[in-house]
Amino acid sequence: TSWHSRFGAVAHSTTGSQMEPTSAYPEATRATYDEMGWVVVEGVFAAEQMDAVAAVATECCRREASGESIRILQVDGEADLPAQLKADTIASLVDHGPDGQNLPRKLDAPYTKHVAFQKVARDPRLMALAAECLGCCNVVVLTDQLFMKPPRFGSAKPFHQDNFYFGLVDSGVIVTCWVALEDADSKNGCMKYIDRSHRGGIVPHVNTDPLSPFNLDASPDAVRERGGGEAMPNERLAEVKKGGVIVHHGASLHGSGPNTSDRWRRGYAIVYAAADAVVFDREDRVLLAAAHYKQSWYNQEARV
């Protein structure tokens, strides 16, 4: 299904029927998000901007994986990582090819590392889309990550839920906006979702692969249950064009397949919170998201 938005973008899911374009922000976008726990909005960003961000992403990941810029981010500054933790961190940032080649897998907190990511995360079209799905007036950036999935051996990411990692009481106060830096489809490892999985709360997450300690996945039993059984009839691929955005709920089960193509599948994921949502700071003090944002590195300028 496709609908035109006030930004000239198009929102769609894998179900439903055609609707006529409207000049207002489409209610169907929020309705699909509420029903399925995720929605795709095409054409939010221009392809040229995504190409520029993708080039910056590759360079930032190269520097990070080489150890040039691995740092602990602190509100009051930065500190070098201890040697073993630094090595473990670097290992989690790369994918390993069968020929021993290493290529970047992900980058944590890219917002803090280059202004190109800040421009995307602060784009009023994207923030308005996040606010629309959250049903609020104002949002703030809670965190972000860059996912690279290199050609031919970009690894799969098993099903998981974002709010398992955040531990917020209400998963509905955050959304993740996954910005496609290039076309994402089944061949290069596009995102996949379990429809309506956000309705049942957070499921147990376990480590199912000792060789990938950074993969804490939803338990297989929970995935099968939310997926509708062994055949997984509730599972959907979320193919999206360059410049499009996937918005998903904090409790939506999502993952991605491996990249078996000759193309990259880079995506920039920004987690937004409703500005008046309750979150916790590093000392477990209760804060509104807006106050947490003001105290975090996301309220500071990027280094580059």
Provide an overview of this structure.
The chain is α+β, with helices and mostly antiparallel strands. The chain contains eight helices and 20 strands. The strands form six sheets. It has an eight-stranded antiparallel sheet with strand order 1-2-3-16-11-18-9-8.
Q: What class, by secondary structure content?
A: alpha+beta
Indicate the overall shape. Answer: globular
Write out the strand line-up for the largest beta sheet, numbering strands in chain order.
Answer: 1-2-3-16-11-18-9-8
> Fraction of residues in helices?
25-40%
Features:
four-stranded antiparallel beta sheet, 25% helix, eight-stranded antiparallel beta sheet, 27% strand, disordered N terminus, 304 residues, globular, alpha+beta
Write a short abstract of this structure:
The protein is α+β, with helices and mostly antiparallel strands and 304 residues long. It has 8 helices and 20 strands.
Strand and helix layout:
Blueprint: E1 3-4, E2 10-12, H1 27-36, E3 38-42, H2 47-65, E4 71-74, E5 77-80, H3 83-92, E6 94-96, E7 102-104, E8 106-108, H4 115-121, H5 124-134, E9 139-147, E10 157-160, H6 162-166, E11 174-180, E12 191-194, E13 205-207, E14 216-218, H7 220-227, E15 235-238, E16 245-249, E17 254-256, E18 267-274, E19 278-280, E20 286-288, H8 289-295
Antiparallel strand pairs: 1-2, 2-3, 3-16, 4-5, 6-7, 8-9, 9-18, 10-17, 11-16, 11-18, 12-15, 12-17, 13-14, 19-20
